[in-house]
Automatic annotation (TrEMBL):
Residues 3-187 form the Phospholipase/carboxylesterase/thioesterase domain. This is Carboxylesterase. The lineage of its organism: Bacteria, Bacillati, Bacillota, Bacilli, Bacillales. Pfam families: Abhydrolase_2. It comes from Staphylococcus arlettae. GO terms for molecular function: hydrolase activity. InterPro entries: AB_hydrolase_fold, PLipase/COase/thioEstase. It comes from the Bacteria.
Length: 197
């Protein structure tokens, strides 16, 4: 799996960077540097190509996920994370998914798995319009959700649905409302606050 790993300070947590549609493993490196330059960084490139654009899973259209492929890709990334943690010697239980758009969506899929133990996540412009069958307990998780009030891709109701996915399962959810489908300074500052809590 194409990726970049950057070593941080000893025993520091590790950012798992997950780019948006059409991005690559370089896109969120500046964000990680601003969020906390001491963390390790593992930045992953999505393996799916949609009209030449990198993605983490297939879809049938905007907001219409290929659920079978989503599950398959989620399994692949989780297996890769285990291998990477061993290879680069970082503690996967202290890893923090940081996603934008499509990257946030694969992060949610990862977090909903019963065998994952992410305690913090920073999710920018997420959309997760599929049925969820797990009642996984997130009461020990802190999650930032940065969402757009006028997002042309994610309707307001779908943003509220993402909030409910986590809050209804006990997570400590911090929400930041921005204008559109974007990563903003207010979202970055809120991310820093979640990391420092």
């Amino acid at each position: 799996m194409e990726h970049i790993f950057k070593q941080g300070q000893p025993d520091a947590p590790t950012f798992i960077l997950l780019h948006g549609t059409g991005g690559d493993e370089n896109d969120l490196l500046p964000l990680a540097q601003v969020l906390n330059p001491d963390y390790n960084v593992l930045s992953i490139r999505g393996e799916v190509s949609e009209n030449g654009m990198n993605r983490f899973f297939k879809r049938h259209g905007e907001g219409q996920y290929d659920v079978e492929d989503l599950n398959y890709r989620t399994d692949r990334i989780l297996a890769f994370l285990s291998e990477a943690a061993e290879k680069y010697e970082f503690d996967l239980s202290k890893a923090v998914p940081v996603g934008f758009s499509n990257g946030s969506n694969i992060a949610i899929s990862m977090m909903l798995r019963e065998n994952t133990t992410f305690k913090k996540a920073l999710l920018y412009a997420p959309l997760y319009p599929i049925e969820i069958t797990t009642n996984k307990d997130f009461s020990d998780a802190q999650i930032l959700l940065s969402m757009g009030e006028n997002d042309p891709i994610v309707p307001l109701a779908e943003s509220k649905r993402v909030i409910d996915i986590f809050s209804s399962r006990g997570a400590d959810v911090t929400t930041v409302w921005v204008n559109s489908h974007e990563l903003t300074q207010s979202g970055v500052v809120a991310g820093q606050e979640v990391l420092n809590n």
